[in-house]
Structure prediction request, 302 residues.
Amino acid sequence: MPTFTTPDGTRLAYHLRGKGAPLAVLPGGPMRASAYLGDLGGLTAHRRLALLDLRGTGDSAVPADPATYRCDRLVDDVEAFRAHLGLERLDLLAHSAGACLGVLYAARYPHRVQRLTLVTPNPSALGVRATPEERLAAARLRAGEPWFDQAFPALRAWLTGEGDFDEVFLPFFYGRWDDTARAHTAGEVKQTNAEAGEHYFAQGAFTPDATRAALTALTAPVLVYAGELDNSPRPDLARRAAGAFPHAELVVQPDAGHFPWLDDPRWFVRRTVAFLDSDADTDGDTDADADTDGGTDGGAGR
Prediction:
């Protein structure tokens, strides 16, 4: 297991999987170990994934100062990761809450980003986030599911601050609540550093106006990847997030939730590889309608 040391002396671990050009990967949670990402639906057949365990998660060391878990303070860890990998510019993929870190990295080091993929991103770093009402409206789209009647009240209580996180509503984060989804949830609590997650979004982590201004210098193409059934972000919120980047496109995977590589791996890999292998599109337009027609290719954090 390879490791490197950050500027403050914390040892971080990462996991290499697959073959091809390197793709640095930031997990969500927030502060969940990278193990839940697996091989990202088979993306390892096309790219060599370098999956980072953020400080205090997975095989990475716990820092001396818990305040360094704050999202903006993790940016220097990502830059140290890039330097350790020996890459002049990164192809970077970030999932869910990890997208906040990916956005802040791109804002601070725009010249170090070659391509940026934000999968079902939390857009808090851009000053937008789904409201409880918006998330519940999206959840109601699942009313025909056999688990809905039990899961929806628990989700509503959590989102409105009247209840705690409850595993009963985990089906909302998946396009299909099947054996694959159930197995994926099994390690969630063990993989997540709850204390670190509390610090991740601490006051001062985000300065959206400054971040948006800094992103105007980002010449790299950006893919904002949403799931049609995801409630955070909903596709319309993902479209708003895409508008913050000079050269961005939005893709919405049909019938997918917060972990689209599990819902239809072939669709996810096909679309992601198409973006990663494409020539940079620098015409300044945001393609907010790419791949939203519901077609498939053979086939929550949050």
Remarks:
- The longest helix spans residues 148-159.
- The two ends are 27 Å apart (CA to CA).
- Residues 280-290, 292-301 have pLDDT under 50 and may be disordered.
